[in-house]
Fold each of these.
Amino acid sequence: MTPGGQRLLRVGRVSLLWRPRALAVGLGALMLALGLALLLLGTGTMQLSPAQVLSVLSGSGQDPVANRILQYVRLPRLLTAACVGAALGMAGAAFQSISRNALGSPDVIGFTTGAATGAIALLVFGTPGAFDTAAAAVATGMLTALAVLLLSGRGGAGGGYRLVLIGIGVGAVLIGLNTLLLAKGALDRVMSAQLWLAGSLNARNWGHVWIAGTGLMLFAPVLVALSRRLAVLEMGEDMARQLGLPVAATRIMTVVTAVGLTSLATAAAGPIAFIALATPQIARALSRSSDVPMVTGALCGAVLMLAADLISQVASFGLVMPIGLVTGSLGGAYLLLVLTRRDGLR
């Protein structure tokens, strides 16, 4: 059977419904991510060939300098980028689904800014460590999500334009608060916080990999499990209720899970624009599927993040360019494209 381009695989009493095009897109994104990873591991002050990279990764490398560079510098940076991109891709798909709006991504509706608030406060006034920063980011990210949900839910409506507009307003308030925190801090701490706010993969270590990877391990399975509910919810809340879907519980679980992913991704690499905004739309366009693109979104998010990292290193004009500048520039152009398309906003 092929309803809507789907295929049904039946083995005994077990049935699996899958979409060949979405599977092809996912496999293609995975192969592209592996190719970009190979290029990134060889890119830097010390250039390494793909053969050298593979020999080091396989444990047969004879150059101790190359071994140390890959093990302690490039591999943590690469894995952090991939995990952060995948997390933001899934979070963007979740937020765009519950808001039914192409602008419903965490960096637009204030959740990324809220997660950054706790991290900035710790960087400026506390004694920041990688895991302390992650805890602070998650705490303020959850508080921001709670505020947005409560404000957007007044009057019985919690999605669509209202969620986006209230999220933008809350994000604007938090930007002012973040600026105030920076103005009150010591100069050296403020400089460190400003570098973090630019969104950077420089000096990433295995602690940052654990933060972003833990977020994926904890929250990604939950979002994948919720994707069927979200697909029903996209048809409208009244229809979802008639089909027996617990709308309020689904929305709360989705927001909490997606905010957790966003907060930990932000703690690992700083605020990263564009990835969560564009990835779900790109995944939907490529797969031509009506399902919420959780898995394909994660893979496409990792590809975009790795590609942006490669651009930041290759086309940096001799400067150490934060990846946030690259994704921010791409995100601005993409946002203009979405806004000017007649069907760009759902």
Note: Residues 101 and 161 are 7 Å apart (CA to CA).
Amino acid sequence: MNEKIRIKDITPVKIAKPKDALTKPNYSARSRIYVRAVQGTFENIRRFFGLIFLGIFALIPWLEYQGQQAVLLDIASQRFNFFAMTLWPQDLTILAYTLIVSAFALFFVTTFAGRVWCGFMCPQTTWTFIFIWFEEKIEGSRNKRMKLDQRKMDADKFVRKSLKHFSWVAVALLTSLTFVGYFTPIDALFIDFFTFNTGFWVAFWVLFFTFCTYANAGYMREIMCTHMCPYARFQSAMFDKDTYTVAYNAQRGEKRGPRTRKMTPEQAQQKGLGDCIDCNLCVQVCPTGIDIRNGLQYECINCGACVDACNGVMEKMGYEKNLISFTSEHELKGGTTKIFRSKLVGYAVVLLIMTGLLIADIATRVPLEVDIIRDRNSLDRETNEGLIENVYTLKILNKSQQKRTYTVAVNGIVDASFYGDTEVTVEGGGVFTLPISVATDPSNLEVGTQKIYFRVSTLDEQGDTIEVEEPSTFIFTGV
């Protein structure tokens, strides 16, 4: 009872906010963030990934496979074409596995390296930096943009602002046309749109996504990351003390303060100063406007811009780099990061299992779907020959992209007579409706129902047999 209870200081630190934010009432318009340009390793990595994924996004709709668009998500026809594979609503499991694999891949990466998806590959981040690039080229550096906005409207400001917004709209329109091109033939889309021959709904979605891209990347920017994206809110559930995140080494940097370039780290320590010279560049380059020196914050997207800015300052000052770096909480406290831990291994195991199931589902997928509809108007009927007959409708879905000829057969009934076409040809991605009837002598039947099987088969390009056998019921009332 005499043991002391350990107390942990959880006093919140003061979080840096954009200029004038503290003097404005809650829910007022935010102060605009003027992002400063930065050069460095992580900026080069971000640009590399941005260009790679932007190139993939722009190129894929233009690829052709066997004379048609290679990737086309045709919602109206309820089919998705991916090169040689066509997915239908019946292939919902493949979509489910794909989404599950994507989710656990995101969980795995986040547990290991924080929000690197947000900082390096997220479309919102990529397009935001594209729009900022146009700002810099047209309006100038951060300080010039701030002075330009403070000026009254004149000819120069009008021209620069008009050119910037024209560039934004052009990028947004090209982005929208490319995105809509995933859902409708893209070559016809561009021609029809710019010749004003496109349909109402296609034009509506092009203009809608143009507006969304323009507003999100041009105006909302960090609002999308901090208030609208759910990932920023639940990411903390995946973080632990071994997660690599962008962090400031307070033990090395504090007490912060300005000094001349001639002052060595040893001289600074003698004056009670740490390595941080309080230049504020880490705040100026941050796309969400936070001060990383205040600790881990949900607004941080792990883009590494503050790392590059700080490393540039440290290099000029002759100090050791990585005052701000990608590190873990354990490393900041002088320990080592544990890579193989239960949470990370668990995500990896589930990811491998779900990836295996996805690959197996795709590999075992049969490009043929057969649906049997029994005639509900009559249970059975007697033919002129005294046979008992049941009537069915077969729907044969060719899930491939090539025309195929299918053979239809029936078994399960002794001495069954088959009335209808035994061979049908179905276009690629087409559905063929085949009415048939099956009859047999009543002496071969027992009163009630019994199983009957319809077998539909064809040959693929390699000569291998593709076969589907679907069960149904044959009814004999005995009347």
Note: The chain has a mean pLDDT of 88.
Amino acid sequence: MSTTPYWQERPMSDLRNTAADPGGGAAAVNKRRFLIRMITVLIGGMFLDGYILGIIGPLSSTIAEDLQLSSLMEGLIAAAALIGIFVGAPIGGWVTDRLGRKPVFMFDIALFTVASGLQFFVDSPGLLLAIRLLMGIAIGIEYGVGWPMLAEFSPTHLRGRLLGGMTIAWYSGFMVAFLFGYLLINNTDLSWQFILGTSTFLAAALFLGRIGLPESPRWLWSVGRRDEARALADKYMPDDTLADLEHEDVLKGTFGMLFSKQHWRATVFTSGFWFCAVTPYFAIATFAASVLETYGLDDPLAGGVGLSALATAGVVATVLLIDKLGRRALTIPPQWLCAAVLAVIGLWTGAPPAVVLTLFLVFSFFNAGYNTLTGVYPGEVFPTEIRGAGTGFAAAVSRVGAALGTFLLPISIETLGTGPTMLIAAVVAAAGAGLSQWLAPETKGMSLTEAAAVYSH
């Protein structure tokens, strides 16, 4: 195996020419159909994540009344999926690097389908808590396999948009579930158990859609199964990634490699960036109505809806621009801007409500935009042998941030006040900006082999 970096052996112009000439005929058509199918079933997993987190909101009061939940149990059930993701993501990522992508993404959707189906039969708080925890573990496993697998099959020139599309799917799943749950619980006689269990139908469809999908050729190559890798790559992978495949190293990945001299920067950046991006988002988005009300807004609920709408717009804009402007341009400046916006909100305690709302809308748009990159970078900067483990570990760290932001914000507002709380959020955003200024790489237009090597030199 040559030790010369791929981009020195073969100019980037050759890669672009390969990407521009994808071939024709039945083979090219079959590859496009396969890619569409792969994108659909993997992005569908992220839609499910948003769905199970969104569906619980409009049902929470009904569930609490029916099961006679204490405040503690109600909070645990609401947070169970997040706890499960924290557990499942690193385990799933490690297993997918050891056993392969295919068995893991089939197992996790099967586990989710079974767990989701059990929601139809819930009759006690403990059972509901256990089921939601199990569903979260399944979604966490999906984090560790979904993004890596999509990255490994994506054409270089579309990889950023496809990985970013996972974030659009999450926001869409959350909003669809919230609206769906609200309409069903208020306008039908369906039980809350059935409404919660609606995720089973989508999960079953995704399970069927994944049957027969192949193993990742990049993973096969990384474990030395070269003949199988070449055969599957020729049949399924985009032509602009075929040559790059043979520049993968044959290495056995270990969890400890995430903290090695070669890869610690990728681990610190992806984990720290993701943590700092989601911590203020989950805090502010979860309590948007109450936060805005403290600033004197007459209709805080409408303001909260506006924040969600602007967040979705920010994700879509980032996905459309990511393969044109590059990763760093959409990662670093927006974080500094959001830190400044939160600082202004925290310091200008007497600001008119309209100004405060405008500032929160600006934050929501740009924060959601750079949050999109949290799903792009892990799939690119970790090599194949630890891509799953790296993505899963970063996802787990991010859930710590989400939980901390959600748990601590109301306590901070009550004890410190809204202004100091927003200043703390500004510090977290600034920390993410500084980390990204230092470590965020530019991976636009690079093959996965190139992108994974940016921290190695």
Note: Confidence is low (pLDDT under 50) at residues 1-23.
